[in-house]
Amino acid sequence: MIVCGHYGCGGVERALGSERSALVDHWLQPIVMLYRKHRATFDAMEDPSARAARMCEVNVQMQVRRVAAIPSVENAWSRGQTLHVHGWVYGMHDGLLRDVGPTLSNIADRDALPSIDDCVLANSHKPRPIELAADLFWRP
């Protein structure tokens, strides 16, 4: 499974702003709340583009954690089924996918993760471009 965000995401940019409307904000609530909780950390980033990019990465990391908690994913892992959950961000400006993690393959991996709050505060993750093998998505 791939959770893939993209740099320049309008939803993330909206979460960093002050404009609100009921329907859109319902979907953005988790990222809005994370931004509010860590506003000082994000706002300390002087470059607005870097701030939005970091927020995109953290959003993907948070969503990977949420996908890994879906009962059907947990059940697959409990049965020993091979299932990997990846966190990627697509750069529309350069066409590259970047691995922002985490990559999870079982419940123990998920449960060993640092909290998303710790990830925000560490702010040390440097995404790396992904080199995709031709057979990554197709295996006869």
The gyration radius over C-alpha positions equals 16 Å
> Termini separation (Å)?
18 Å
Low-pLDDT regions: none
Strand order of the largest sheet: 1-2-3-4
Question: If you average the pLDDT, what whole number results?
Answer: 87
The fraction of residues assigned to DSSP E strands is 5-15%
The major beta sheet can be summarized as:
4 strands, mixed
Shape call: globular
* Helix proportion: 40-55%
Which class of secondary structure composition applies to the elements? alpha+beta
Q: How many helical elements? A: 7
Secondary-structure element series? EHHHHHEEHHE
User: How many β strands by DSSP?
Assistant: 4
Could you name the key traits of this structure?
7 helices; alpha+beta; 140 residues
